[in-house]
Amino acid sequence: MTNQASNSAFYITTAIDYANGAPHIGHVYEKILADAIARYMRLAGREVQFVTGTDEHGEKIAKAAAKAGQTPQAFVDDLSLRAFKGLWDRLEISYDDFIRTTEGRHKRYVQEVLTRVHDAGDIYFAEYEGLYSVGAERYVTDKELVEGPDGVRRYPGDKDPPELRREANYFFKMEKYQAWLLEHIEANPEFIQPAGYRNEVLEMLREPIGDLSISRPKSRVPWGIELPWDADHVTYVWFDALLNYVSAPVSRGQSPDVIGTAWHVIGKDILKPHAVFWPTMLRAAGLPLYRKLVVHSHILAEDGRKMGKSLGNAIDPEQLVRDHSVDAIRYTLLREATLGADSAYGEGILVSRLSSDLANDLGNLLSRTVSMVQKYRGGVVPQAHVPSEREHGIEAAALALPAEILRLVNDLKINMAIEAAMNFVRDLNRYIAESAPWTLAKSDDTQSRLDTVLYTAVEGLRVASVCLEAVIPAKAKELRVQLGLGGQTYTLKGAWGLTPAGTRVLGGPILFPKPETPRTDPAEAPAPTDKKEKQTMTQTEDRPAAPAQTAPTHAAPSDTPAATEALISIDDFARIDLRVAEVLAAEAVAKADKLLKLTVKMGDEIRTVVSGIRKWYAPEDLVGRKVILVANLKPAKLRGIESQGMILAAEDDQGNLDLVGLTLDLPSGTKVR
């Protein structure tokens, strides 16, 4: 801790989970995401507090408890402590406080804030009629409903359509603060991230939002916190739950102003309560506004569909933890998911990433380094001698890497921060292959050179372990133990040469044993979709797109001229050069509402590609993503920008676009065949 910035307080929270059912993979991702951010900040020397917990009041919980034949309290006690807290502990979620909304410390603070807001004149009693979503536990507008396959309109995620309810409740004057909130969000673009969710909230606030019903008659919903001025009403679950972000630190003797440093990590399905209800509640209570709302998207099944028990593609977190190491789960989820877009995840993706990144790249680097130190230097880390240009380059990369990682974390590009660390690991593997210590060991004339190579590999692994510690905390520490560095801790800052020469490496078991590739039952393969390949680069600009090719419904006779002309030979296909490319940067093309300018990496080559996908993808959602590129397409100028290829996408009958991607994490430049 060397400066004021590094000592600054950092407060991070997750949404508190609604304790009416077991946690799902979305809960797991959110907790791991927030935990990784908290750990990065601790490694950077900041004073971090991290709060999570469970939301335990409301109509849904009362109904679920009755169905289970339990009291609401017994029902939530089991789910909160066993299902949620128990799982977070096994996943090594490093929370500082686990708060439950049925705790006395939380109830007292909720009633204190309610009294304050009521006494200020911002709560009133009125009768209201409207559509009520039992699933979301709030009144919803007709505009928020979505028509399902059965033609019934529901609030997204609900099993049942909303009920028309008319009852007398207490209301919070939320609309009073609408103009203030709109102005704040417009003036602070970093307040809600990613930007797509910020834009969604701005759209909400440009229309009337109304006031917020904040109570329920106790005669109908007895399970809740009583209003301090009217014991016949209990507090609406959102006005209760959101206050956990302040009640937790206040109960530990801190000032409620700590909320002004908070990053709230939430899922996109609870955007409105956190981006509209919560800020206006804070304003009315005289509390500072939180620092940042971090919104993540959903985790999809490996087949790209929404997970569901009825579809047979849901992931059971408990089974996942039984089958795989905690750090493998943490790493693969964080590496695969991006905040701004729903991300696929499953056994095959986990195994592929575990095999390539953790076993092949990191684990193999540790094994071969320890083995060579033991074989050539009796297990003792040698003193480095005169470094070559290559060693100077590795040292420079090691010194710059922590700052780059922290920059990416602050920009909420966690997957790219991980990739930056892994690129350093891969370079160390290349360095060993280039240096060939096994050859250096054969000659007396190259012994000092061998010392330098071995020291560089050991110290590089130490640096990598620190850069990856927030993601794989247990394995990062185990790695350092095998290097002989014991329980030594390090801060995430640029440093080189911290492994003392003379350290005795210990070695140990394989860091990440390579898993067996899961077998796929053909009968369980997802059904084919109606999507068709679509060329997206030039459809709306300077030249027309080639017509999309779709499979005929019925096989045409082989002697039909039209069918024969539509077919291509294997030689024709061989002329098309399809390559894996990684998007390094993306930006909107000025005065072209359909175009994005992408900077992509294809092997060692960097290219610019212009693509008409702006309607479906925000620029920040594409960075770090692997796409399929037509690499030998003749360059074309679009809006004055030379486009050097075309990315492939598929489109369904409703015009929804999906980029053609990969299940395996193949290197950029890989040929698609």
UniProtKB/TrEMBL annotation:
It catalyses: tRNA(Met) + L-methionine + ATP = L-methionyl-tRNA(Met) + AMP + diphosphate. GO terms for molecular function: methionine-tRNA ligase activity. Pfam families: tRNA-synt_1g (PF09334), tRNA_bind (PF01588). A motif ('KMSKS' region) lies at residues 306-310. It comes from the Bacteria. It is found in: Cytoplasm. Keywords: Aminoacyl-tRNA synthetase, ATP-binding, Cytoplasm, Ligase, Nucleotide-binding, Protein biosynthesis, RNA-binding, tRNA-binding. Residues 529-544 have a biased composition (Basic and acidic residues). Residues 572-673 form the TRNA-binding domain. Residues 509-561 are annotated as: Disordered. Is required not only for elongation of protein synthesis but also for the initiation of all mRNA translation through initiator tRNA(fMet) aminoacylation. Homodimer. This is Methionine--tRNA ligase. It comes from Deinococcus oregonensis. The lineage of its organism: Bacteria, Thermotogati, Deinococcota, Deinococci, Deinococcales. The gene is metG.
